[in-house]
Amino acid sequence: xxxxxxxxxxxxxxxxxxxxxxxxxxxxxxxxxxxxxxxxxxxxxxxxxxxxxxxxxxxxxxxxxxxxxxxxxxxxxxxxxxxxxxxxxxxxxxxxxxxxxxxxxxxxxxxxxxxxxxxxxxxxxxxxxxxxxxxxxxxxxxxxxxxxxxxxxxxxxxxxxxxxxxxxxxxxxxxxxxxxxxxxxxxxxxxxxxxxxxxxxxxxxxxxxxxxxxxxxxxxxxxxxxxxxxxxxxxxxxxxxxxxxxxxxxxxxxxxxxxxxxxxxxxxxxxxxxxxxxxxxxxxxxxxxxxxxxxxxxxxxxxxxxxxxxxxxxxxxxxxxxxxxxxxxxxxxxxxxxxxx
Length: 341
Ligand code: ATP
Ligand code: LTN
Prior knowledge:
Elements: H1 7-12, E1 16-21, H2 29-42, E2 47-52, H3 54-57, H4 64-81, E3 90-92, H5 98-107, H6 112-116, H7 119-127, H8 134-149, E4 154-156, H9 162-179, E5 187-189, H10 224-232, H11 249-262, H12 266-272, H13 278-305, H14 307-336
Parallel strand pairs: 1-2, 2-3, 4-5
Helix pairs in contact: 4-13, 5-8, 5-14, 8-9, 10-13, 11-13
């Protein structure tokens, strides 16, 4: 029976996925394995909507020229990773005014106590102690708005965003409880493999683009020599056996990376490197990562030169996003009692 259904009916059944990434600096291998690569794979089975979350990015101070370049770079890089705008509307968050509007509304349904418990807020306010601004604090309400505007069923994120997602669910649930069903309650979609790629210098911390030690992360756009150097310098242990184990955070992480880019299991990797030292293993991980990133870098270099093409794509994405999100915003405002124009 499903076979005879018209195409639209089939598509309507697909679940909605929303996700976004901040253009707040270099996009890392952690972002790629933990987030972007999964987005690309989801495009056929879901109705995906993706965004560059540039409104979120100003919660920490940005240099205007670099910021502008980072936004375009992030957009082009995501296209290069395989986001297909024919399948998945892909836009820049600040182009769609409904996000800031719903974020304000949701702020009024979010408790101070809830926001105070967010570990990202605690971490970032320590890191940027001279600029603990209200935006940093209310960041999760804006993220909730991003998700709820599209009635997303699923939100693919790395493990570090789980708490924000929980909060988005609570906000949606609270609003629905007061006004009746308005928002879909989103579920997280956290892939088991690669959801937490660790720093190459301190493998007890996640790989983070804001780490001051450039050897801690690999950027998707790093050149092959740099990538190889960073892997060669990666912190390991003294056992010199390539296997997953307790107290072997560095090697566990490298095995995780190797496994994510080659599709081999940890056991297969252990067998392959039996009797070989860490030097050989690091070299092999570096090479595998270089090969994974090479075609992405080539496509990025083409896209970033083609400003007209980029503009055409992000305009198209914003138009679609506004149309869908305005419906949800109107619905929420009507329920609150606003006079719609
Ligand atoms: P920052 O260093 O500013 O905290 P970030 O590198 O953590 O930034 P985000 O923009 O916060 O990057 O994250 C983008 C996406 O990448 C999110 O879905 C996040 O969960 C995922 N992600 C970030 N770092 C990692 C990591 N080390 N491993 C796996 N996924 C990650
Ligand atoms: N906060 C996320 C980026 C982000 C996001 C979203 C992710 C902004 N809005 C909506 C999923 C859904 C981050 O820093 N990784």
